[in-house]
Structures are given as C-alpha cells and as structure tokens.
Design goal:
Blueprint (H helix, E strand, L loop, with lengths): L4 E7 L3 H11 L4 E8 L6 H14 L7 E3 L14 H4 L21 H11 L4 E5 L4 H9 L1 H4 L2 E7 L15 H5 L1 H8 L5 E4 L1 H4 L3 E3 H8 L3 H21 L3 E3 L1 H10 L5 E9 L10 E4 L10 E6 L2 H17 L8
Parallel strand pairs: 1-2, 1-4, 2-3, 4-5, 5-6, 6-11
Antiparallel strand pairs: 7-8, 9-10, 9-11
Helix pairs in contact: 1-2, 1-11, 1-12, 1-13, 4-5, 5-8, 10-11, 10-13, 11-13
The structure holds beta-D-ribofuranose and calcium ion.
Length: about 325
C-alpha cells in the first residue's frame, strides 16, 4: 500500500459532512490529519462540537479539530440549514460527547502549520462554505501555495441551485470567499450538484451499513432526518450525500471525470448571487481554471461509500494511530 495521502477536511457538520468524515476514517488511502470547522449548516460552535463527536463515534478523537470562521467574509449568510440537517446539525441524533476539545489554534493557523510542516503534499477536502480557505489564501499565501489538491464540494455547472434557483448552498453561504478560492490558481477540483445529485444513497444501502454494527447504525440514524427531508422536499426515497462524494474524489483521485473550466462566482446581490458560472464552451488553459467534475459513476460511488462505512465496524480501532 502506498503512503497514505495527508488529508484535511474543512467542514460544517452537517449530516453528509458527518458521513464524509466517517468515510475518510474508513479509507486507508488517506491519513486524516486535521478537521477544520466552519459556519454553514449550523453555527460554528455547533459544527465544531459535531466534528469532535463524529470523530469520537469512530474511535478517532485523536484527530485534531480546529475551529474556524464563524461568519462569511463580507455578507452574513442569510440563513442556516437546520431545516435540512436538524437544529443541531446531526439529524436530531445526540452523539456521546468526545473527551477531546478543539485545539487552541484557529483553523487557518492550524492549516498553515500543517501545510508548512508536511513533507508530502496535503489534500484539503472543503465541504462547507469556503471562508476558511479564502482566509488561508489571504493570511498565509505561502502555506496555501503548498496545497497538493483542493477538492471542493460546491456549485453547479448546469443543474441550477439547491438553495436558490441559481446557487448551491456552500457557494451561496460565502460567495466572496468562493470567488477568491475558485479564481486563485490553487489545484482545485469542483464537485458540484451536477455529479452529486445523481448519486443517491438509497434505503437498501443505508440498511447495509446499519447492520454492520454500532457505528454504522448511528450513521444510519443520523441519515434519517435527511431521508425524511428528501421524501418531503423532493419525493425521493434516497439521500444525496454531497460531501461524501467530494471526499471520495479526495481519497481516490480520478473517481470523477473532470474538465478544466474557467469558473467565476456571482457575487452580486441579485437573484443570481452564489451561482457558479462555469464556462463550458471550451476547455480552459488558464492557470486559474479549475477541474470541474462533469462525469460520475454514481452506482460505483454509492457502493464505495456503503462498503467503506460498513467496514468501520469490522475493523478494530487502529491503536498505532493514537
Ligand atoms: C452542501 O450543502 C450542505 O448543506 C451540505 O452539507 C453540502 O456540503 C450541498 O449543497
Ligand atoms: Ca457540508
């Protein structure tokens, strides 16, 4: 097995964020070195607490958690997503508290230190609003330049939005940060609604990891609120686990078919705010272009997620990592 890729997850747990963290912990291809939290689905104090508890659920409270931005760079996020993720962000499930506490350094400092000290290129999976990453670019540009890959869950090239007609939630929540990051020349893969929406985890898949043991059963319980929301809001019987698909691309680069595109974010205050304008007329050669995910094998991605989540209960805790 090649050396695992050092991974940071920048996140706002969040139901699908929780699944994404568990997926990373179940994947030997990556070494989850740090979790940084951000405002988004719920307030940052809650996303931080949720991150700690999700890591503890998997027996990995040794992974450091650093709290990040509590608000967007310029315009406060108009509303949170408690109606989707539950008021406390984990679908009404109260996980046992972790013995760990957040590290004392703020997220941007922890990110910068890790990037400057890591001997190998670090992958960052950013699955919440991009406030922390934009701050990193501005405050610690030398550290940001050392990012090996940045995999962003956000935006949409042709499927419209999920929080407004035009905008996907993570981009809409901090449009100015997204514009700074997506035009920064960082080596970025943009995993948007075009590939996440077709990738539906159904109840049969959930039942498989639910049956594997207590971790899988708890993950399934967390998902129940998402299932209920999908049933009422969209009339579907499965859930779209956006963030887990982005983390899959971080774990197995090339999972998604990507094309280099020029992308800008609508930062105006009109109806299009937060829209990712992806220029699909040409393949871009500009240094600021990003790799936009345009193709996905949804069945394979769901199978990967289900089998990895089920494996969390099968594998004994890795004492060597503590
Ligand atoms: C994104 O928005 C959040 O609610 C999810 O966690 C995901 O990161 C999907 O639009
Ligand atoms: Ca998220």
């Amino acid at each position: 097995m090649p050396t695992p890729i050092p991974l940071v997850i920048d996140t706002d747990p969040g139901i699908d964020d929780a699944l994404a963290i568990l997926l990373a912990l179940a994947s030997p291809e990556v070494d989850l070195r740090l979790v940084t939290t951000v405002h988004g689905n719920v307030e940052v104090a809650q996303t931080t607490e949720n991150a700690l508890r999700v890591l503890h659920l998997a027996g990995r409270s040794d992974v450091p958690v650093a709290a990040g931005a509590r608000e967007s760079l310029v315009h406060p996020q108009p509303e949170r997503a408690g109606h989707v993720h539950g008021a406390a962000g984990l679908g009404g499930v109260e996980l046992p508290p972790s013995p760990a506490v957040p590290i004392l350094r703020p997220a941007v400092v922890a990110l910068a230190e890790l990037l400057m000290s890591a001997p190998q290129p670090v992958t960052i999976a950013a699955v919440g609003p991009l406030t922390n990453i934009a701050l990193l670019l501005r405050v610690f540009p030398d550290a940001a330049a050392r990012i090996g890959r940045l995999v962003v869950m956000g935006g949409s090239a042709w499927r419209g939005g999920n929080v407004t007609a035009a905008a996907e939630f993570n981009i809409w929540a901090d449009a100015e940060a997204a514009q700074a990051v997506l035009t920064s020349s960082l080596p970025t893969v943009l995993v948007g609604l075009d590939v996440t929406l077709p990738t539906v985890l159904d109840e049969a898949g959930i039942a498989r990891f639910a049956a594997a043991g207590p971790i899988g059963a708890t993950a399934a319980a967390i998902l129940q609120q998402y299932l209920d929301h999908a049933r009422t809001a969209y009339g579907t019987t499965g859930v779209v686990v956006h963030d887990a698909l982005a983390v899959t691309e971080a774990i197995l680069p090339g999972t998604l078919g990507t094309v280099r595109r020029d992308v800008v974010v609508d930062t105006g205050l009109g109806f299009g705010r937060g829209q990712t304008l992806v220029d699909r007329r040409t393949v871009s050669t500009a240094p600021t272009a990003v790799d936009v995910a345009e193709q996905v094998d949804s069945a394979a991605a769901v199978e990967f997620l289900v089998s990895r989540l089920a494996s969390l209960d099968a594998a004994p805790p890795d004492a060597a990592r503590r």
